[in-house]
Specification:
single chain; 335 residues; alpha+beta; Ribosomal Protein S5, domain 2; six-stranded mixed β-sheet; two-stranded antiparallel sheet; 36% helix
């Protein structure tokens, strides 16, 4: 296809070359977004090639599937007028776990909130995105939720597609099922923003913070049973232990919860120590070695500590690496 004689392109522009270049960039982004499915090969479909001035258009990774922190929830199929509607929910990583490139692909900091919702594909072409179809309200704590919906061209009349195939509305027979999916995925999106503390329901991770439901709301307390704090308690002279516990009490009382909530719900990116937002991997082994030395390498408590290392924060953020560290420390012969 060859386009020529753009009579309106240069209207009001100082440079038609710059205006043309900007339009070409917009075109490339639009094609990359709308046709991202057909540009990506699958087991059952080969990729379609689209080029602009002999430069191939790359598919847009809408759901950041290459990011290890992206959560792909279990898919669900619905039957509508004898046709299958396939729904695949995703929860994007928290902004602290996004590289600059990931953030750009997610639509930027503003786009994270604006682009939450359903992404409807008709015959693998994206026709509608960034809307919850008024089934739920857009909010900050659900901005990481995105749902891919695949439907065939046999359902155009039920989805109220217009002549341009650019607007959709789910039929009543499907809305209840979509509401259930929304409830599941938006709760997952909110959980990404939850403070890194222990949930009120128990799990198998030894957290640095305990989170408890109390009469007036939620309480966060430092987990004094954490191996690191237990080791510290043993190392501190007896006469200063009260001061140590008074310090813990003060930190618990002075948690800036309002500021933390505002920062997480805004576009401020929390400062992190690694690209994955966790403690530096290079320090984990040194930390484990220090705790083990305090507990006692040859004691039963020391061996239990190594056996449980992958379930103790911050080692639990990198369980495979924690297991490797534990194996190395078990092989070390005490001096």
């Amino acid at each position: 296809m060859l386009w020529q004689n753009f009579d309106r392109l240069g209207a009001g522009e100082h440079s038609i070359e710059r205006a043309f270049g900007n339009r070409m960039d917009l075109l490339r982004e639009h094609l990359s977004l709308v046709f991202h499915r057909v540009l990506t090969p699958t087991a059952s479909n080969s990729a379609v090639t689209i080029t602009i001035n002999n430069n191939p258009v790359r598919p847009f990774d809408l759901f950041l599937t290459r990011n290890k922190a992206t959560q792909a929830l279990p898919p669900q199929d619905f039957s509508l007028a004898g046709e299958r509607v396939h729904v695949q929910p995703y929860i994007l990583p928290h902004i602290s776990r996004l590289s600059n490139e990931d953030l750009r692909l997610a639509g930027g900091e503003d786009g994270l909130r604006r682009n939450q919702g359903f992404y409807v594909c008709r015959n693998r072409r994206l026709i509608s995105w960034g809307s919850w179809f008024r089934l739920v309200r857009q909010e900050e704590l659900t901005k990481l939720a995105r749902v891919q919906v695949d439907l065939s061209n046999q359902l155009d009349h039920l989805w109220k597609l217009d002549i341009t195939k650019s607007t959709t509305h789910p039929p009543e027979a499907l809305r209840e099922g979509l509401k259930q999916i929304i409830g599941r995925i938006t709760e997952g999106s909110r959980n990404v923003f939850v403070f890194k503390g222990k949930k009120a329901s128990s799990d198998k991770i030894i957290h640095a913070w305990d989170r408890s439901i109390v009469r007036d709301g939620v309480s966060y307390r430092i987990n004094r049973e954490h191996p690191l704090l237990s080791a510290l308690n043993e190392e501190v002279p007896l006469q200063t232990r009260n001061l140590l516990h008074d310090t813990f009490d003060l930190l618990e009382q002075m948690i800036p919860l309002d500021a933390i909530y505002l920062d997480l719900a805004s576009h401020i990116r929390p400062a992190v120590t690694t690209e994955e937002g966790d403690i530096r991997i290079s320090t984990l082994e040194a930390l484990a070695t220090q705790i083990l030395a305090s507990i006692g390498r040859d004691t039963d408590a020391g061996q239990r500590f190594l056996d449980m290392l992958a379930t103790i924060e911050p080692f639990s953020f990198h369980p495979e690496i924690a297991k490797e560290i534990a194996a190395r420390l078990k092989c070390v012969t005490p001096m």
